[in-house]
Each structure stands twice: as structure tokens, then as C-alpha cells.
């Protein structure tokens, strides 16, 4: 029986696999080769999605570096990772930076298996203002972060006018942070708050 690899799959099918399969599934199918880069060049603005990270950090890092080196636009960056060890936090920052440099429009970031109302990444300082400063960003979905650690002064006085949708789920933040986000992202048309705590005067 012939083994399914990227070298025998047409570009259109590789495109669909890249967009809709999790990294774990793609790894099982051995769709990790130079043909990916050819597919990315043929079909720009692809979705970079990682549902499974444990044990695959080096592979994921290698793949997203190809996006960086090839300057391949990223339409959507989704990292739904259940790991919250300190060793992955520098990679979070690196991958976010690459996505932002590659003109990402939508970011979905955070664990799916969180207990509602309980932040997962309590020791990770999310670079929220760096993310919002991206002029290409239209939609931001965050799950399980603690924004109380973020200094309001780290964002300066800039306004972030590209964002249209902000969704915060199981996020810890206070009234000042929420007010700052709303003031600086004044063109938001869709704001979603789910199981956030720390707010007193909404």
C-alpha cells in the first residue's frame, strides 16, 4: 500500500491539509517536507494552526521558521496548546512575532481545555500591546491568560485602529486593563467577554 506523503499529493490537497488538519495529524501522514514550502508559495495566506504541541516543539518551530524565512503571509495563526510549562513561553513569543511580521489577520491563542474562569497561563506575560500594534490584525481571540501581570505603561499611548473583534475567555484582568483596551482599540465592533474575572465596574 502506497504511503501518503506530501511528494505524491497535489498542491490543492496539501493546501486543505495545512488549513484543516492539526499538527499531530499532519505529522502522522508525514506531510513534513520541502513540498510544504512549494505549497505555501503556490497558495499564500495560509492558516498556521497547532492543536497539539507536547513533544513537537522543535518540529513546529522549524515549520514556522519556514514562514519567516520565506516571508510567507499568514492569514490566521491559531495555537491551541494545553502545555503551560515555562520552557514553551519563549517559543510563544517567537511564533507570535513571526506571525505578526508576516501580516497575520486573525490570532486565536490559548488552551481549549481550560476550566472556565481559571487562567491557564498564570506565569506567562502575554505581549498584548505588541500584538495589538500589528496593523494587519483584525481579530484576536485569547483564552486562559492573566493580563493583570501586564504593565499598562508598556503600551505607551498608541491607539490600535486595525482590530475589529476582541474575544477574551477565562482571562484575568482588572477594570483599568479593560478600559485601556477599549480606549486604544476604538474601532472594535465585536467584543466578547466569557468567564473573565477581576472586573468590578463593567
Descriptive notes:
By secondary structure, the protein is an alpha/beta fold. It has seven helices and six strands, in the order αααβαβαβαββαβ. The protein has a six-stranded parallel beta sheet. The model is unreliable at 1-33 (pLDDT under 50).
**Average pLDDT reading:** 75
The total count of strands amounts to 6
Q: Number of helix segments?
A: 7
Helix content: 25-40%
Spatial gap, N to C terminus: 61 Å
Strand content: 15-25%
Main pleated sheet: 6 strands, parallel
Determine Rg (CA atoms, Å): 18 Å
Q: What best-fitting shape do the alpha-carbon axes yield?
A: globular
Q: Which regions are unreliable across 5 or more consecutive residues at pLDDT < 50?
A: 1-33
- Can you write the helix and strand succession as a string? HHHEHEHEHEEHE
Class derived from helix and strand content: alpha/beta
Main β-sheet, spatial strand arrangement: 1-2-3-4-5-6
Give the secondary structure arrangement, pairings included.
Elements: H1 11-20, H2 23-28, H3 34-42, E1 46-50, H4 57-70, E2 74-79, H5 89-101, E3 106-110, H6 128-132, E4 139-143, E5 165-169, H7 175-184, E6 190-194
Parallel strand pairs: 1-2, 2-3, 3-4, 4-5, 5-6
Amino acid at each position: 500500500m502506497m504511503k501518503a506523503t506530501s511528494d505524491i499529493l497535489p498542491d490543492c490537497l496539501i493546501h486543505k491539509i495545512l488549513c484543516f488538519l492539526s499538527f499531530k495529524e499532519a505529522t502522522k501522514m508525514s506531510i513534513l517536507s520541502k513540498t510544504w514550502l512549494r505549497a505555501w508559495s503556490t497558495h499564500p495566506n495560509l492558516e498556521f494552526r497547532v492543536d497539539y504541541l507536547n513533544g513537537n516543539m522543535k518540529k513546529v518551530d522549524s515549520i514556522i521558521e519556514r514562514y519567516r524565512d520565506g516571508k510567507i503571509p499568514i492569514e490566521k495563526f491559531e495555537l491551541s496548546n494545553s502545555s503551560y510549562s515555562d520552557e514553551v513561553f519563549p517559543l510563544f513569543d517567537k511564533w507570535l512575532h513571526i506571525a505578526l511580521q508576516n501580516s497575520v489577520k486573525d490570532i486565536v491563542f490559548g488552551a481549549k481545555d481550560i476550566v472556565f474562569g481559571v487562567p491557564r497561563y498564570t506565569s506567562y506575560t502575554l505581549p498584548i500591546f505588541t500584538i495589538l500594534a500589528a496593523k494587519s490584525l483584525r481579530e484576536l481571540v485569547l483564552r486562559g491568560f492573566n493580563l493583570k501581570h501586564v504593565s499598562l505603561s508598556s503600551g505607551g499611548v498608541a491607539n490600535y485602529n486595525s482590530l475589529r473583534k476582541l474575544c477574551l475567555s477565562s482571562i484575568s484582568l482588572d477594570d483599568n486593563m479593560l478600559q485601556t483596551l477599549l480606549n486604544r482599540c476604538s474601532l472594535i465592533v465585536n467584543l466578547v467577554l466569557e468567564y473573565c474575572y477581576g472586573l468590578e465596574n463593567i
